[in-house]
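User: Could you check the structure of this?
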Amino acid sequence: MTLIISWIGVDDNKEGKKPASLYIASDSGYSWRTSTKYDYGIKVFGSSRFPEIFAFCGDVLLPSIILGQLLPQIDSGIILTPLILK
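Assistant: Sure, the predicted structure tokens are below.
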């Protein structure tokens, strides 16, 4: 069973309340039908250069492999490139 939770942090300033941060958390347990368990898995992936966050629940194999390879490519600019504003 997977638990994914998210919440926002809100700043209260002179102009009113505005969202300031976003948090996403998950448990780290993987389990299979054979009652095999692994308690050190990653289920939340975030880019260090872009505002991209991915999380998954359910099947473990495909999302963990794809997201583990996708995020380094996003961070290096292979898949997403920053927009240049003039």
